[in-house]
């Protein structure tokens, strides 16, 4: 996700400095080249040798080492991003006021790349007016301030001020500097997850969809530069990136309304949601009591959203459907492809081991309206999503 990106990690003297080791490892794992600068006092909290080992580069602690100048200006100009993690109250004050007495601040003042700041301190220090004023000042300079977390602090108290986790920092860096350009300028609409059709205030009709495939597609498109709108049914999973515009819905009717509202503005629409085919004709206003007799529920068909969008599709738009079949799989998928005026359909099979609801893996077949076929072998849903996005790029 950060392949070839050059990132500086700046470390100041906080107990949270140990997390910088994990951050460096994550950055390297995701393809970044990493250089570390740290204040002299931060050596009491984390070993320069460990950071040098994981970054595969020398660690700079002072302006010179063994009579050799560490060129912080050159380093600042080298980087694609500079993240200060942890940034103590003292460091924030120096950054906000230009007090340059260590190599971390000197590199910060020399850098022309995006700057990310991860504060770390006790709650009272974090909430102090001077600290908040410094954060506002730093943000006004164009720096990206990462949100602190709430939890147990080094003081033994519980509150705000915990530094963001390394995984959160990675996502922030990816979102700001790691996105590709292959889908830049394209508006992509994706639906994901199940719908719930109320029977009474307590019960509903639904299915086993987790929404993971749809979310993986949304993230893959977003990482390639697309403007993504994700319509989600009720589900626990959420996309990792805040830049993905989420539209939460519950019922098939709400899903229909959201899709019809968003569809005219989309270039590509991928309907991966498992929308209920039927809903109760009437919804009981009170909880239905359990009785000895059976309960009969009269249901009616919901709107076929995909077919409806197919009738509205314009020449520049691409419409992709998903089909989950248990019998006559290919025949049924090809019928939907033609009948619903789709550009392509992605076939899921519940019969294939490792594929289906609630799993982290999947395997699919893709049928294009031109007759072209493509098979995605069993792999993670994230990898399937990336393969599909690359395939769709060929049809753009």
UniProtKB/TrEMBL annotation:
Source superkingdom: Bacteria
Domain Flavoprotein, first and last residues per copy: 5-174
Keywords: Decarboxylase, Flavoprotein, FMN, Ligase, Lyase, Magnesium, Metal-binding, Multifunctional enzyme
Residue segments, region Phosphopantothenoylcysteine decarboxylase: 1-187
Cofactor binding note: Binds 1 FMN per subunit.
Essential cofactor(s): FMN; Mg(2+)
Enzyme Commission number(s) of this protein: 4.1.1.36, 6.3.2.5
Any single GO CC term annotated in Swiss-Prot or TrEMBL for this entry: phosphopantothenoylcysteine decarboxylase complex
Catalysed conversion reaction: (R)-4'-phosphopantothenate + L-cysteine + CTP = N-[(R)-4-phosphopantothenoyl]-L-cysteine + CMP + diphosphate + H(+); N-[(R)-4-phosphopantothenoyl]-L-cysteine + H(+) = (R)-4'-phosphopantetheine + CO2
Region of interest called Phosphopantothenate--cysteine ligase, as start-end residue ranges on this chain: 188-396
Binding site for CTP: 277, 287, 322, 336, 340
Pathway(s) this gene product operates in, as recorded in its UniProt entry: Cofactor biosynthesis; coenzyme A biosynthesis; CoA from (R)-pantothenate: step 2/5; Cofactor biosynthesis; coenzyme A biosynthesis; CoA from (R)-pantothenate: step 3/5
GO BP: coenzyme A biosynthetic process; pantothenate catabolic process
One Pfam family this sequence matches: DFP
GO molecular function: FMN binding; metal ion binding; phosphopantothenate--cysteine ligase activity; phosphopantothenoylcysteine decarboxylase activity
Every DNA/pantothenate metabolism flavoprotein C-terminal domain range: 184-392
Family stated for the protein in its record: In the N-terminal section; belongs to the HFCD (homo-oligomeric flavin containing Cys decarboxylase) superfamily. In the C-terminal section; belongs to the PPC synthetase family.
Main function: Catalyzes two steps in the biosynthesis of coenzyme A. In the first step cysteine is conjugated to 4'-phosphopantothenate to form 4-phosphopantothenoylcysteine, in the latter compound is decarboxylated to form 4'-phosphopantotheine. Catalyzes two sequential steps in the biosynthesis of coenzyme A. In the first step cysteine is conjugated to 4'-phosphopantothenate to form 4-phosphopantothenoylcysteine. In the second step the latter compound is decarboxylated to form 4'-phosphopantotheine.
Listed NCBIfam families: coaBC_dfp
The protein, known as: Coenzyme A biosynthesis bifunctional protein CoaBC
Gene name as annotated: coaBC
């Amino acid at each position: 996700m950060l392949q070839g990106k050059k990132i500086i990690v700046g470390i100041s003297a906080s107990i949270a400095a140990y997390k910088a080791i994990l951050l460096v490892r994550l950055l390297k794992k995701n393809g970044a080249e990493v250089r570390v600068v740290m204040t002299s006092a931060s050596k009491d909290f984390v070993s320069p040798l460990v950071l040098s080992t994981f970054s595969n580069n020398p660690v700079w602690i002072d302006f010179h080492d063994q009579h050799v100048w560490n060129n912080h200006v050159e380093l600042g100009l080298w980087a694609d991003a500079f993240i200060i993690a942890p940034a103590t109250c003292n460091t924030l004050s120096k950054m906000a006021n230009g007090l340059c007495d260590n190599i971390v601040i000197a590199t910060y003042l020399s850098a022309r790349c995006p700057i990310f700041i991860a504060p770390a301190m006790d709650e009272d220090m974090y909430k102090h007016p001077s600290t908040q004023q410094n954060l506002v000042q730093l943000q006004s300079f164009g720096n990206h301030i990462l949100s602190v977390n709430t939890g147990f602090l080094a003081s033994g108290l519980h509150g705000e001020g915990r530094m963001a986790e390394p995984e959160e920092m990675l996502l922030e860096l990816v979102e700001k500097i790691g996105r590709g350009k292959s889908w830049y300028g394209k508006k992509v609409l994706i639906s994901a997850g199940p719908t719930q059709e109320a029977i009474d205030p307590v019960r509903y009709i639904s299915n086993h969809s987790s929404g993971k495939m749809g979310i993986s597609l949304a993230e893959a498109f977003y990482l390639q530069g697309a403007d993504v709108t994700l319509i989600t049914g009720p589900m626990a999973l959420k996309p990792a990136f805040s830049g993905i515009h989420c539209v939460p819905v519950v019922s098939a009717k709400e899903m229909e309304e959201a899709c019809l509202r968003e569809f005219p503005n989309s270039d590509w629409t991928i309907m991966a949601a498992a929308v209920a085919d039927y809903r109760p004709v009437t919804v009981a206003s009170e909880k239905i009591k359990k009785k000895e007799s059976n309960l009969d529920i009269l249901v009616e068909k919901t709107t076929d959203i995909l077919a409806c969008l197919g009738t509205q599709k314009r020449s520049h738009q691409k419409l992709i459907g998903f089909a989950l079949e248990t019998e006559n799989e290919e025949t049924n998928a090809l019928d939907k492809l033609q009948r619903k005026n789709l550009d392509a359909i992605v076939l899921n099979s519940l019969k294939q081991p490792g594929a289906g609801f609630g799993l982290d893996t999947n395997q699919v077949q893709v049928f294009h309206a031109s007759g072209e076929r493509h098979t995605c072998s069993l792999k993670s849903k994230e990898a399937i999503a990336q393969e599909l996005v690359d395939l769709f790029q060929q049809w753009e």
